[in-house]
Amino acid sequence: MYDRLAILQLIEDAERAEPFCVCGAPMVATDRGGALWLECSARHRPHGRLARIAFRLGLHSARELLAAPALLAA
Ligand SMILES: [Zn+2]
What we know:
This protein starts with a helix and ends with a helix. 38% of the residues lie in helices and 23% in strands. By secondary structure, it is an alpha+beta fold. It has one domain (4-72). The protein has a three-stranded antiparallel β-sheet with strand order 1-2-3. The chain is built from three helices and three strands, in the order αββαβα. It binds zinc ion. Zinc ion is lined by residues 21, 23, 25, 40, 42, 51, 54, 60.
């Protein structure tokens, strides 16, 4: 069970552990179907040559931080 403070701490820890994608863009916390993910900020709008190459190759970083049921319970 996570409360809002625990979720904020989870996001801060994840962003601190993995601040940048392999393409160099910052990682951001996002909602994916009710689940909390840490993903590349350039994932949907790649800017720059390296980001576009990573987009074409599907190399942008993304990982689930918190599954939807756990997030809904917070
Ligand atoms: Zn990226």
